[in-house]
Design goal:
Blueprint: H1 33-41, H2 47-51, E1 57-60, E2 75-90, E3 93-102, E4 105-111, E5 126-135, E6 140-143, E7 146-148, E8 159-162, H3 171-185, H4 195-200, H5 206-214, H6 221-225, H7 230-255, H8 267-273, H9 280-293, E9 300-305, H10 311-324, E10 328-332, H11 336-352, E11 357-360, H12 366-377, E12 382-385, E13 399-405, H13 412-419, E14 426-431, H14 437-443, E15 448-452, E16 462-468, H15 472-484, E17 488-492, H16 507-517, E18 523-526, H17 532-543, E19 549-552, E20 565-571, H18 578-585, E21 595-601, H19 607-618, H20 622-639, H21 641-644, H22 658-674, H23 676-690
Parallel strand pairs: 4-6, 9-14, 9-15, 10-12, 10-13, 11-12, 13-14, 16-21, 17-19, 17-20, 18-19, 20-21
Antiparallel strand pairs: 1-8, 2-3, 2-5, 3-4, 5-6, 5-7
Helix pairs in contact: 5-7, 7-22, 7-23, 9-10, 19-20, 22-23
């Protein structure tokens, strides 16, 4: 039984019972150099990879359909005699036409650019073909149907798989290659999944699942089309189980490391020093974090919450607790702009907390040397910066806490290097992008998660409205009315300067235009190319009310808190992602005053852009928006596959298969808790089969 097998499996392990299925695809019948190269382009290098190259759909060829019962628009398998064969003129081209009939009627089969083999057929011969039919003037017709010849008995009598297209390889050839692989390599295939788990989840054995997923013997098309046949569920479960097993083992390993047990007394003192009251949600999350930090092993927690919920304050309170214990804090942001904004926006709070904060980004020159020296000597409590923090020249005197903002925008290696600058520091990662539960379990499954699900008191919902270019005057009127009430506004543009390649509004030109259109108001501009001190001066002027309208790029996406700013106009809104618009919109609605976000879109919108803007107009719920963004763009697009280290599943789909994901997670964590040795053995097998760096412990 599999449960007794504990290998240190590698791809070349001669003793591994899985060595055969790791054979190259070139070992299969009919796979020469050209076909092997095309398969490799699709990530199919081994027989095992081919097993997970599943059909995208199935054709129902279980029985012949009488010609008079064929439904137009549907596919059918028919048998008849060739009544006529020859070329016919159709408009401007010649096509090959066969008239095929039997006692139930006649159909027309047509081919453009017909293959030569079609001329082997003769009038009066029997023929079997499968195609999609449509109604013509006189009879049903089908274009480019598949002809089933002698020796192709596998091509009829069952549900036939249709695979994703591979250049230069026909569907029939792919089926033959897969069938050869299954026939030769699934017999007596050991199953790495413990019997107990298979039985509990009603999953078939691996070899049976592979056969049935490609060539179903039990015909249940309704299950196959929604990826819920037992075989498909098993292969989906395997992918999720491997990832969750990795996360469970990581978490188990981290829990055994020796960390810093921080003293956490005096929290009421820090609460009293704040210029505002914390929400109940913030206090709950702080309690979760502080409790973690008091334990003698490293904290590894994700702090998640919607725009404007007060995550940064929570992170700074954790930092305060660390500094009180004589340790330092590293606060890493993904870009220089975000690092600068965090530094500027937290200056007042860090001063109130009596914390010495410093900024370190690339391009600071000799000033950077001074900051590094102060950090090394322990004279800096909190160092805020970009990936510059992970440079070898940055050495902390006594690092105790690492705070990482927008974790998904960092590479796995970058995060690991920062953690190595101390012995098992606590790690608090933050994201202002609400993460759907399924994505959270997949991407951050080894972390404890804290969620701030409450906005500060007095905040009113932001009214969001969609306008088009013809409505520009109306938008300016709404903007003017709001500013005349004594409020302030943001106007956000996708570009700093105009581009000949893109017909988009830009901040520089529009700032000049607005000064002419709205001469009674003070208009300022801010963008990412400005020096830090200049940006700081502009933001200070805006904060004090000296600027009525701040024209900006997405530089204001994070970390800006101006309660008097109650209206935002986003130009070319169709060019922004859902989560990005939600982040930008979060710059308003930060006071008791009603706030508005006006989306100005061009007429040229894709269907996806229309869907995005429709969602953002209807809801301010960040989690609902994140779910929609995930559905529209997928996890890879949403988070950036390469940077996040996110696994690109071959079979599983985290939206469609959320229930199976939860089952796989439950079983993986239970296995690690109950039998860590067995869990490591299975991990070794599955990671060798997947040959994927996404699964490294």
């Amino acid at each position: 039984m599999m449960e007794k097998y504990h290998p240190s499996a590698t791809d070349s392990d001669k003793d591994s019972p899985y060595r055969k299925i790791l054979s190259p695809v070139s070992s299969l019948k009919g796979v020469g150099k050209v076909i092997a190269r095309e398969l490799q382009k699709r990530g199919i290098q081994t027989v095992y990879d081919l097993f997970y190259f599943l059909p995208r759909s199935f054709q129902d060829r279980r029985k012949f359909v009488p010609i008079n019962e064929i439904i137009p628009g549907q596919s059918a398998l028919i048998k008849g005699k060739i009544l006529k064969l020859g070329r016919v003129r159709l408009r401007y081209r010649a096509i090959l036409e066969m008239l095929i009939g039997n006692k139930n009627g006649i159909i027309s089969a047509r081919w453009m650019g017909a293959p030569r083999y079609l001329f082997r057929f003769r009038k009066g011969e029997d023929i079997i073909l499968f195609g999609r039919f449509r109604r013509s003037f006189e009879m049903l017709e089908t274009y480019h149907p598949e002809i089933i010849e002698d020796g192709d008995e596998h091509e009829i009598g069952s549900l036939i798989p249709v695979y994703p297209e591979i250049e230069g390889i026909s569907q029939r050839r792919i089926r033959r290659i897969v069938r050869d692989a299954i026939t030769r390599f699934t017999q007596n295939l050991e199953d790495p999944l413990p019997t107990k788990i298979r039985q509990a989840r009603k999953l078939p054995e691996l070899g049976d699942a592979i056969k049935e997923a490609h060539f179903p013997s039990e015909s249940r098309p309704e299950e196959l089309h929604i990826w819920r046949s037992p075989a498909q569920r098993r292969l989906i479960f395997d992918e999720f189980f491997m990832l969750q097993l990795t996360l469970a083992l990581k978490r188990s390993k981290a829990s055994r490391q020796k960390g810093i047990a921080f003293g956490t007394h005096g929290m009421e003192e820090i609460y009293r020093s704040l210029p505002f009251k914390l929400t109940g949600s913030q206090k709950r999350v702080i309690h979760e974090i502080i409790t973690d930090m008091s334990r003698p092993f490293p904290m590894n927690r994700l702090l998640q919450g919607d725009v404007g919920c007060g995550k940064t304050v929570v992170a700074l309170i954790a930092a305060w607790a660390v500094v009180r214990n004589g340790y330092q804090v590293a606060f890493m942001a993904p870009t220089q702009l975000l690092a600068e904004q965090h530094y500027l926006s937290t200056l007042e709070l860090t001063r109130r907390m009596n914390l010495k904060a410093a900024l370190l980004t690339s391009g600071m020159g000799t000033l950077a040397d001074e900051v590094r020296n102060r950090v090394k000597q322990g004279d800096i409590d909190i160092l805020i910066g970009t990936h510059a923090l992970i440079q070898e020249s940055v050495r902390f005197h006594r690092l105790g806490l690492v705070i990482i903002d927008e974790q998904h925008r960092f590479g796995v290696e970058q995060r690991a290097i920062l953690k190595q600058k101390a012995t098992s520091p606590d790690v608090l990662t933050m994201t202002a992008t609400p993460i759907p539960r399924t994505l959270g379990l997949t991407l951050y499954g080894d972390l404890d998660i804290s969620v701030i699900d409450e906005l500060p008191p007095g905040r009113k919902p932001i009214q969001t409205r969609l306008f088009h270019e013809r409505d520009r005057t109306k938008v300016y009127a709404i903007l003017t009315e709001e500013i005349k009430k004594g409020r302030q506004a943001y106007m956000v543009y996708p570009l700093i300067e105009g581009s000949e390649k893109m017909d988009l509004k830009d901040a520089t030109q529009m700032a000049e235009e607005l000064r002419g259109i709205l001469p009674d108001f003070h208009i300022g501009m801010i963008h990412g190319r400005m020096p830090l001190d200049q940006r700081e001066g502009i933001m200070e002027a805006f904060k004090k009310g000296a600027i009525d309208i701040l024209v900006s790029t997405t530089v204001i996406e994070v970390g800006i808190n101006i309660p008097n700013a109650t209206i935002m106009v986003i130009e070319n809104a169709e060019r922004f992602g859902l989560s990005q618009i939600h982040q930008l919109r979060g710059r308003v609605g930060r006071s008791v005053y009603p706030s508005k976000c006006l989306l100005l879109a061009s007429y040229r919108k894709t269907g996806e852009a229309r869907r995005r803007l429709g969602v953002i107009e209807k809801t301010t719920d960040g989690f609902r928006i994140a779910e929609e963004d995930l559905a529209i763009r997928g996890p890879g697009e949403l988070l950036g596959v390469r940077q996040s280290g996110f696994y690109n599943f071959r079979v599983a789909n985290i939206m469609r298969d959320a229930e199976i994901l939860s089952e796989a997670r439950e079983e993986a964590f239970r296995l690690v808790d109950g039998d860590a040795e067995l869990a490591h053995g299975i991990y070794n097998i599955l990671s060798s089969l997947s040959h994927s760096s996404n699964f490294n412990l």
